[in-house]
Structures are given as structure tokens and as C-alpha cells.
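User: Could you check the structure of this?
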Amino acid sequence: QVQLQESGPALVKPSQTLSLTCTVSVASISTHTYYWAWILQPPGKEVEWIGAIGWSGTTYYTPSLRSRTSISRDTFRNQFTLQMSSVSPEDTAVYYCAGGPDRIAGTDHDYRGQGTQVTVSS
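Assistant: Sure, the predicted C-alpha cells are below.
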């Protein structure tokens, strides 16, 4: 069973950059047709797709966050990373990494991590 584990700071100050890493086990992030995504769930709201990186390294972003979001990968460590700049308290959410074959966007990927709470506050 493919496993994903998020890691990163739980508290980020406003205007700083949020950085989270997802470590993938069992499957390689370079597996053909696999996509690896970040999604978030603000308190009391629905889960939202942030973006994804594909097996070949191509990246995709939701338009509303494109200007301040970057997803990258480290194939040696089998990890992919989310960076979100200029965060505000509205970015407070549980952040999940997810992935699987043939799905770039959306929130129902085959595999998902447990999620990590990130709070933006001074």
C-alpha cells in the first residue's frame, strides 16, 4: 500500500512562506502516469485542490493560488514539496498530500496522507 506522510512547521507567521514536504513510500514519484498533489481543508470548509506535480515533473496549479504556490520534487528522496508564499490567516488549514495514477486535480486521489495542521498566526 502506497503511503504518504506530510512534514513541516505547524505554525507560520503572516507574510512568510509555508513549506511542507510529502514523503512517499512503496511507489516511486516517477512512476509513469502517477500524479502527486497537495490539497487543503480550511476549518469548517470543503477540501480544495492546490496543485500537483506529475511523474515527469510537470506542475499544475489551481488558478486562485498559482501566483504564490510552487510544487517541486526530489526524486532521490522520493519526496515532493509545497511552498506557498505571502501566507495570511486565511491559509490556516489542514494540508494533505495525495497521489495516484491518472488523476491530476480534485480531492479523491487513490492515496492520501493523514494531513498536517498549519496555522498562520503572529
